[in-house]
Write a structure and sequence with these properties.
The chain has 269 residues and is an alpha/beta fold. The protein has one domain: Vaccinia Virus protein VP39 (Rossmann fold), CATH 3.40.50.150. The chain is built from 9 helices and 7 strands. The protein has a 7-stranded mixed β-sheet, with helices on both faces. α4 links the parallel β1 and β2. α2 packs across α3. The longest helix is centred in the C-terminal third of the chain and has 20 residues. The radius of gyration is 18 Å and the shape is globular.
Length: 269
């Protein structure tokens, strides 16, 4: 299926009703297990910088969900958030300005073409790299953009069932993906020659997390991709299924997965 049309529906909804945007962010943080992992590691990374004000590059900000989190919980900081979708950037810029967030700016940028040099302490790239064919070029751009001692945190599907691909005959669940996912070895082999070192690597969405993803995300998205009329039924669907989904997500979050359909990777310059 193609995920972008469904995402555009949500983007249009929160644009039309701006007061729902904060609720939408909280819903994303609750519903997506990757957000649990990402927010935990962002807090851990912030501690490494002490009281220093850090400069953050939100590379592929989307709805602005993680920029919003970082402006609240990773202070003091300045954030530069980019995306290739101009209308999403416009919406984020207006929302953050209306809510008087300081030291945050937005721009339309293609990550394969950025030219930042020694500018950021932290680069955050969530569920973006699986959409980009020339990933090594982007990783090189990230390395150049980071200050020495800076970190790049990325989250992406893994080769172990990421994008719901389990063998050679399977196609990606998400039609916009350029690759099925990454492994630890794959990322290490691409990043270390550039100059990065591995700070942390963690497989996410293990056995229970993968089931939770299917129940909480995949099946509803398939229905919405088929017909937007299913928006009406979503509250009833989640009323029945979400308690079970939440328990399975918590089990995954508190476990050490040997493999999983997602991977969270932190590299250091």
């Amino acid at each position: 299926m193609h995920y972008d049309p469904v995402k555009d529906v949500f983007a249009s909804a929160i644009k039309r009703f701006p007061f729902t945007r904060k609720i939408f962010y909280k819903t994303l943080d609750l519903m997506f297990l990757r957000s649990w992992y990402v927010r935990r590691e962002l807090k851990n990374l912030r501690k490494l910088f002490g009281e220093k004000k850090i400069s953050i590059f939100d590379a592929g900000t989307g709805y602005g969900q993680y920029s919003y989190f970082m402006k609240k919980y990773l202070l003091p900081n300045s954030i530069f958030a980019v995306d290739v979708k101009e209308k999403w950037i416009k919406d984020c810029r207006e929302f953050f300005a209306e809510n008087n967030f300081s030291n945050i700016s937005f721009a339309v940028e293609d990550l394969t073409e950025i030219q930042h040099e020694n500018k950021f302490d932290l680069i955050v790239c969530i569920d973006v790299m699986e959409h980009i064919q020339d990933d090594v070029k982007v990783f090189s751009n990230f390395f150049r953009a980071l200050k020495k001692g800076g970190f790049m945190l990325m989250n992406t599907p893994s080769i172990f069932g990421g994008s719901d691909v389990h063998d050679d005959e399977d196609e990606s669940f998400i039609g916009e993906h350029a690759r099925q996912g990454y492994s630890f070895e794959d990322l290490k082999s691409k990043l270390e020659p550039i100059g990065f070192s591995v700070h942390l690597s963690k497989y996410t969405y293990g056995f229970w997390g993968d089931i939770a993803w299917r129940l909480g995300i995949k099946y509803p998205m398939q229905l919405l991709n088929f017909s937007k009329l299913f928006f009406i039924l979503l509250p009833f669907y989640y009323l029945l299924t979400f308690p079970f989904t939440l328990i399975m997500m918590y089990g995954d979050f508190t476990s050490e997965n040997s493999v999983g359909s997602g991977i969270l990777f932190i590299a250091k310059k």
